[in-house]
Amino acid sequence: MPATIVGVDPTAEARISSIPGRIAEGRYLNGSDDDSIILGLHMVERLKTGLGRRVILMSQNAEGAMSEQSFDVVGIYDADKATEDLYVFTGRAASQRFLGLEGEIAQVVFVLDEETALEDALAALADAAPALDVRGWKDLNLFLASMDSYMGVFVHVWLSIVFALMAIGIVNTQLMAVFERTQEFGLLRALGMKPRRVLFMVTIENALLIGIGVLLGMALAAVTIWSLSDGIDFSAFARAMEMVQTGEIIYLDYEPDAFILFPGLIWLLGILVTLWPAQRASKCRPVDAMRRET
To answer: For residue range 172-188, what is the model confidence (pLDDT) as tens digits?
Structure first.
């Protein structure tokens, strides 16, 4: 069965990979000299093997000859099936001895705190090591890079549609409210309230109502994220999830900046679109209220 042998430093790997935290049975590797092996759950099923049993790996070594060695299965990891069928993990030094590549490294992975620093980091690494092939994740996985780009466009279009529908709904609701309160506004004008005071009053009312709705929405979103902290199981759509190279469980997360920014935008947009109904209310005349009453 074809597979990719990955020799890792377990301590360093835990900082950049999710595999160490996905061990379903057994244990992870103890060190770079550990000549045991970690297999994916689906591969274990296909090989009809398990913990404590041995599997034989065959590969072409650095001299072009076939190298063969048996490894003890000490751990089984649970990820998406594409990963489980493709990658097996062993210690870095053990894999170097197996392939006759002592002292040689095939790949070094860096993880950044901010994706916006990716291009600067790539340029700095390329300058520091011009003999090495330095690539970002978008160059290594064009499919995911394309999906990420399209998803960004989709999210912006979707948000624009949602904001537009929200604005239309608020305007329609407020216009109906102004129509129903014609007598009230006419009475206030008859009592001497100036138009700008009516405009200010209606705007403040709408700002408070929209603000309460935004706060309730934020609270509901926080409760939803907390209640789904264990993830959403999409195992029923496992084949579709394999196409996007992700796991069967999707974990919700939020960005603190976005959690404040978007509710703030919704509140401001709500106030802006209610200025028109508020202006109509300020122009209500006492005679209109009397005519409405009759």
So the answer is: 888 888 888 888 888 88
